[in-house]
Structures are given as C-alpha cells and as structure tokens.
Predict the 3D structure of the following.
Amino acid sequence: MDTETGPGSLPHAPGPGRPLPEAEPGLVERWRSGGGELVELLSQVRERLGGVAAFRLGSARTVLVTDPRAVQHVLARHPERYVKRSHRARLLIGDGVLAATGDAWKRQRRLLQSQFTGTGMRRYDRRITAAARTTAGRWAGYARTGQPFDVGQEMRRFALDAIWRSLTGHPLDDGTERELAAVTTVATALPTLPADAADAHDAVAADLARIDAVARHAIEAARSGAAGPDGPGLLHVLTDAATEHPEYTDRLIRDELVTLLVAGHETTATTLTWLHLLLDRYPAARRQALAAGGEGTAGRRQAVQALVHETLRLYPSAWILPRHTTEDDTLAGHAVEAGTDLLVCPYLTHRDPELWPDPEHFDPRRFTTPDGRPTHPGAYFPFGIGPRACLGLQFALRESAALLEHLLPDHTPVFGSTPTKAVYGITVRPDGPTPATLEPARA
C-alpha cells in the first residue's frame, strides 16, 4: 500500500471513492457526427469535467487522465495497477520492448537500459554527431544551389542515419534508406488498417517483407562479428545476448531492431519537423537561442535543449498512453473499477492553461527561466514517466540537440507551404509535405 501523503502523492484508499464525472451521451454523439479527431473529444471532456473524467464510445467506460497528480499515480506510483495491454504498433514491432509485458518486458528492458544512460550514451555520441554533420553538409549544398527540399524528409533521413549508425556501426546508405522507408509507411498506415489482425497484416505485407529483409541482413552481419567503421553497434548487444538467453531468437532480435528503428527515428524526426515549423512561425525563438551563447557554450546548449523541450510540450512523442486497470482503486478521490480502460494524455496535460499559461504559444523560455514551468513530474511527460517511460529519452534529446547545433547558426528554412493541421496517429505529425529552400540564418 502507498503510504505517501505529501505534495504530489495520492494515498491509495481501497474503500469507495466518489463517482467519476462522466460526459453526457450527447457530447459523444455530436463528436461522432462531426467526424472529428479523438483528441477533440478528449479536449471537450477535460474542459467540461476536469483532469479525471469518464466517457463512453460504446458500452464500455473509458477514463481520461490529464491531472498531473493522477498521471503520476497511474504511470509512476502504481504501474502494477494500471498496465499496458497491447501496443498499437504490434503489427510492426512484434514483441519488442515497447509492446512486451510482464517478465518478458522486464528482461528486455534490463538488457537495453544500460545502453541509453551514462556510459552507454557516450558510446553513441560520435555516431550521432557524424549523422548531424552529414545532414549539415547536405544543407550547405541546398543553400549553395537553391535546391528545394522537404524538411520532414530531411529530418527522417537524419534520424534514421543516427539510429542506424548506433545499431550497426555503419552510416546509412541509399539502398537501406529506400528499404526502410517502409517503416514510416507502415507506422503511418496503422491507425487506418482493418481491425482483423490477418487483414491488417495482408494490407501491409509487402512493406513488412522489405523491413524483415533489411533486419535479417543486419542481424546476419552482426552475428558474423563484422563491425562497422564505428565499431560494434547496439545490434551486437542483442545478438550476443542470444548466446546466453535462448528467448533472444532471430524473431525477437528482429522485433527489438524494428522497435528501436521506430522509436529511434520516427518520433525524433516528427519532433524536429514540428520544431522547424514552429521556428518559422516564431522566428524570435531562433534568435534568442543563438544569442544565448557561442558555439559549444553551456548557454547555447541550454537554449537549444529548451527549443526541443517546448516542441515536445506542444507535440509530445507519445500523445496518448493507454492503460488498463487490474484492481479497484481510488484515483484523485474517484472510484475506478478493475477492468476499466484509461487514456493518459500528455498532449492535453501540456496544453492545460492552469499549468501552462498561454499554452498554445511557443515559448522555449518556459524551460530556461526560474518558475517558467510547473515542477510536478506529472505536468510534463512527453516520453512518459515511471518504469515504462521511453528508454530512448536521452538518445532522442541528444540527437535533436546535436542536429540543431549544426543547422541553426547557418541556415533558415523558408517554407513554400506549411501543413494546416496535425494527424493524431502513433505520433502527432504534420498533415502534409514541408517544402522549403534555405537562406542564411539571421542574427
């Protein structure tokens, strides 16, 4: 039992709590008839009923959680009561660590944990920097020739190069890049695939086969002991694990590889694309970051990291986190029955005006000034919090900052057009292309 009762904690009261506030059926029906995004319904539920509230899309009740204390209660303090059941990307990532549960998840996470903290991350710094320099060189060519390009595609190319170097020790080549475009294709299609698992697989079978072929070749190369120019990669850690842990079959290694590709490049590429679009709307933020200090200084690093954090506030890597209640509980004083589905929503928590003044405004200074942001851990969690928080948090922040440190001082994208809305799938991504040319960065 949780006995903590200080600020930011919620005591577990097994007795009955207050009934959950619940959205009236008419609200859901009006949303259905309008054909809007799920986030629009969730936003209305939160606005009308608060940070812990219920609604029904059918006969089953779903509970929306956006209140920071309730977020912490669910994700960090009592993850055993609120579990992850099935990942929406299982068709793509199989039994990789994002989708795994129970003891299998604990084993897989334990193996990968050390690779993304402290000493582990230092192994990948040089590879991330090399990918950033490669992108900066391409951008210098675009600037010289005036050649138009798509910012989103460039961000995917950079992020894929960074994670591929880290996985294999090799820079991304054109052929591998073409084949791994199938990862983005499948990830984008997932929300619209048929509900039946076999039909869903058939719909993207060709793309899955392309991904499997790349994974099979990379696993064979790692198992042969052939290291890339930067030495062994994270994939070698997985193949070495198979010698002591029989559960690391070729299929599980494939699933972990694809999981790391999805988590290591799709989310980062989307964040960086949003960041460039936001800097186009708020050019003062770019000037403030560059004025914070010279290249390599602590002031510049802090300002660049603030750009990334503020982008993640508006467009978190995981915009919604589904959970399932395994036992009766009391959440923010409300009774929650075993068997209830929850939707924890970082996207809405990050846009709560009671937590974040003027929440729709892009202002990186929230992360550099005293008292600029709420201190409660449940108020800002773009990668989740608790034991199932994203393993690659430090990797994603490092690669984003490394690229911006190379690009921001020299170039400013000038967009030919910009997307008019967002699409809420596995990530929140811009709806449409992002064509641009480059001009010299303004001081």
